[in-house]
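Annex B.
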Amino acid sequence: MEVGKDGKIKLPKVAKVKNKMPAPVQITAEQLLREAKERELELGAPPPKQKISDEEELKAYRLRKRKAFEDNIRKNRTVMINWIKYAGWEESQKEIQRARSVYERALDVDHRNITLWLKYAEMEMRNRQVNHARNIWDRAITILPRANQFWYKYTYMEEMLGNIAGSRQVFERWMEWQPEEQAWHSYINFELRYKELDRARNIYERFVLVHPEVKNWIKYAKFEEKNSYISSARNVYERAVEFFGEENMNEVLIIAFAKFEENQKEHERARVIYKYALDHLPKDKCQEIYKQYTVHEKKFGDRAAIEDVIVSKRRFQYEEQVKSNPHNYDAWFDYLRLLENEGNVDQTRELYERAIANVPPSQEKRHWRRYIYLWINYALFEELEAHDIDRTRQVYQACIEIIPHKKFTFAKIWLLYAHFEIRQKNLQMARKILGASIGKCPKDKLFRSYIDMEIQLREFDRCRILYEKFLEFNPENCTTWMKYAELETILGDVERTRAIYELAIGQPKLDMPEVLWKSYIDFEIEQEEYDRTRKLYRRLLERTQHVKVWASFAQFELCIDDPDAKERARDVYRDGHKAMKKAEEKEERLMLLEAWREYEHEHGTEESLAEVEKQMPKKVKKRKKVQTEDGSDAGWEEYFDYIFPDDEAAQPNLKLLAMAKMWKQKQLEQDSTTEEEEATPGPSNDS
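Crooked neck-like protein 1: predicted structure tokens.
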């Protein structure tokens, strides 16, 4: 800055920016972070570990570490993790006094840090310094009385030490602060562990005054009831009702009180409680009380008066609901359940007829799901409640006729109809029903249920026919093929089973081919057809070169009780390795080599193990450019690659390195020869 003659400060002239357009390449925060991360990766290796052999080196090591910790603390005293690491290191060196000093210095910096207090006290407890730990806990709860961790840890420590009186004293100090509910429960459970029921009762008395919620009063009463103090429990409930009064009366409390009296067989008392609540509570809060009162009267009293009121009220509500929305099937369910509980068969049947008349307007299955359950409940009602078999059959037939089977069906209704006929010992009719279901709307569930029924009846020829139809309908389902083969295996027809498996694996499309092949292989192993099993493995390996197949093949060879089993398993691993090498599958090739190495560790020799070790690859870290979808560069990405010793792709690089080494050696030899020639004197001109 310059000062003019008039004494004013002259500011330097700044060149005006002519072009204020943004630069073509913008530097983003992401780019800066990525470059910073790349520079971190280029840092040098950490120093090698050193072993301390004498006391002088140990002192020097400790001095260096302490200096480093002190430097970190000096840079930023408020970062507590530095203090904790420092104290932890001092503890690991058995310098407990120094660790205490570090913690105390840290507390001077931030005495409200909960983690710091916890670490300090835990250190003292680990080193069995009980009085020191007590001192720390006392200081912590004095400074931070609302930190519940301190209280929990302190009481737990005293209890583990067997100092029950001391733990109780800590609890009492805690309760003076009126903590949250869980703290009170912990104190109560502590007293109950030592059978101090009177003390627990006194705590409950204080607890319900500090936290006067309904649930806490109920817990207090249930505590008294659990310990067989019935009069005390009743007294608690009565005090709770009086405490909340008519203005703040709660239906949960009333129901709990009434259920308590019901459990004590005091049904008249329970009835009085329910009536008191109904008289004093608003009607919109009495629904649950009405319900419980009804249940109570059904069990123990004359239900006529109260149930007439409730049923008429509910009928009115349900009628309004179904009139406003006839397709509200949940309302129909509730209404029907109400009439079923009354036991009037004719009225219930009439209501079922009204309900099923409301067919869903659209032919989408999701709209029919609730509607179908109306038919199911109707049929079950006719069979189980009305005991009218003919009407039950008519309900099932009408339901099947109303479903649009060309678009969708419900396997449940077909199966329920068939099971109903079986219960009536009409097996032929049940078969006709299931046959019609498969003809109209074949589904996996229908086929399986029909087959299960025939298996239970031991009609195996029918099962075969059904399986054939099932596979014609869905040949991609591997589970069906396996179940069919399993049936033939149980029947002892090995050739049929084998033929089924051959047909299955020959299918052009399967949903779970690997499971099917495994089932076929397991079958051949069970039959002890080891040559067939080997052929199966080879056929499977023609389709897939998965590493798990090779490993399973090797395990199969090893499990055969044969002197050459180990060598055959080793040959499988060799073949698998060659195949993986040819397919250039590095990851799977490494997995197979690891499995082979594990096998050689258990069953091989040093020579065979060395053979595998020679083929293990080296893991190298590489980088490649990453491009976004629009083709722009997105930086570099690191990935791991594996270089195998006999990998042909790596040979040119190795040859190039070898040639470069030979050239360097030749250059050095030529330079040394030239220097020797220059040092040797030549013949003089005089001679």
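The chain has 33 helices and four strands. The first helix runs from residue 29 to 41. Further annotation is deferred to the next reporting cycle.
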